[in-house]
């Protein structure tokens, strides 16, 4: 089963296109999660990593009924070195055991030979003393298209080999994304529109049985007008949609991100779910569960009339 078909199956199973971003900020993790680990392991990197794992487990348990997919932003783990990456790998394993689809938000790219190493390390297998093994148990990852076609092809080739997916940055959610992405070319197109057509060509022959491509694109919820144009240009492309909640976008602005079938996108929220509790003493897992259910219900009202 190809990556995009697995994702759609999970979306349909849970009637939800919510993607929960597991981006743990240590200073915001509740003291009830930190305290027992600190007492047992001390103020060590290993103890910190265990805090991340335990916090993620609590969130995953809370949102499992309502979210088909989770996304790990690698920077929140890499900053703690090997201990942080161990926490990421363990959190991915837990996510897999619970049945989530898993996206790694790493935004990697480089010249083709280096891109191949990134692709093998994250999506594929690496050589361990003569045997090949996966290091990360993922379904897909984000990549940066700035180096051009030859920097993307290694990710696509490895993803095809192992039935994984790729999400390419297209129109990102940050305020200054237009500095480059919105520049107008001599043809009259904006940079992101030209890139969309080039990416569509790369993904045309890499579709699942659903008809959607395994090469998805990142389109920020904070730019609904751009999304409306891109949706018409890319009817068989799934969008990974950041910017909901803490970054300012609301459900009403997402209407044009989806196709009439209610598919075509997954909407990410990180802080708005994992740090949803409003006061000390409130159960952070219950708060996350309420937040993800509310988000699911709001988005379903504008995607194909689902409830």
UniProtKB/TrEMBL annotation:
Recorded superkingdom: Bacteria
Species this chain originates from: Anoxybacter fermentans
Domain Orotidine 5'-phosphate decarboxylase intervals: 17-291
E.C. number: 4.1.1.23
Catalysed reactions, as listed in the record: orotidine 5'-phosphate + H(+) = UMP + CO2
Cross-referenced Gene3D superfamilies: Aldolase class I
NCBIfam families, per database record: pyrF_sub2
Biological-process GO terms, alphabetical: 'de novo' pyrimidine nucleobase biosynthetic process; 'de novo' UMP biosynthetic process
Lineage of the organism: Bacteria, Bacillati, Bacillota, Clostridia, Halanaerobiales
Pathway linked to the protein: Pyrimidine metabolism; UMP biosynthesis via de novo pathway; UMP from orotate: step 2/2
SUPFAM superfamilies named among the record's database cross-references: Ribulose-phoshate binding barrel
InterPro entries: Aldolase_TIM, OMPdecase_type-2, OMPdeCOase_dom, RibuloseP-bd_barrel
Active-site residue numbers: 107 (proton donor)
Listed name of the protein: Orotidine 5'-phosphate decarboxylase
Pfam families: OMPdecase
Family to which the UniProt record says this protein belongs: Belongs to the OMP decarboxylase family. Type 2 subfamily.
Key words, A-Z: Decarboxylase, Lyase, Pyrimidine biosynthesis
The keyword Phosphoprotein is assigned to this record: no
Listed GO MF terms: orotidine-5'-phosphate decarboxylase activity
């Amino acid at each position: 089963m190809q990556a995009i078909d697995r994702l759609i199956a999970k979306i349909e199973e849970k009637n939800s296109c919510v993607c929960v971003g597991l981006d743990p900020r240590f200073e915001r993790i509740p003291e009830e999660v930190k305290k027992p680990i600190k007492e047992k392991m001390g103020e060590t990197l290993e103890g910190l990593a265990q805090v991340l794992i335990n916090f993620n487990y609590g969130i995953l348990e809370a949102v499992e009924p309502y979210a088909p997919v989770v996304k790990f932003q690698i920077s929140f783990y890499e900053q703690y070195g090997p201990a942080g990456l161990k926490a990421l790998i363990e959190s991915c394993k837990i996510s897999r055991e619970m049945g989530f689809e898993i996206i790694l938000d790493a935004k990697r790219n480089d010249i083709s030979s280096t891109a191949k190493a990134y692709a093998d390390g994250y999506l594929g297998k690496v050589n361990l003393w003569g045997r090949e093994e996966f290091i990360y148990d993922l379904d897909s990852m984000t990549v940066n298209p700035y180096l051009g076609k030859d920097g993307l092809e290694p990710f696509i080739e490895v993803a095809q080999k192992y039935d994984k997916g790729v999400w390419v940055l297209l129109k990102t959610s940050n305020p200054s994304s237009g500095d480059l992405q919105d520049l107008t070319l001599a043809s009259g197109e904006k940079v992101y529109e030209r890139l969309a057509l080039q990416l569509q060509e790369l993904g045309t022959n890499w579709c699942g049985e659903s008809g959607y491509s395994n090469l998805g694109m990142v389109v920020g919820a904070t730019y609904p007008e751009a999304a409306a144009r891109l949706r018409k240009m890319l009817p068989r492309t799934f969008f990974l949609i950041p910017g909901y909640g803490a970054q300012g976008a609301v459900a009403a602005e997402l209407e044009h991100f989806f196709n009439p079938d209610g598919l075509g996108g997954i909407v990410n929220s990180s802080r708005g779910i994992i740090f949803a509790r409003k006061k000390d003493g409130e159960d952070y897992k219950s708060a996350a569960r309420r937040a993800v259910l509310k988000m699911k219900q709001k988005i379903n009202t504008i995607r194909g009339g689902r409830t």
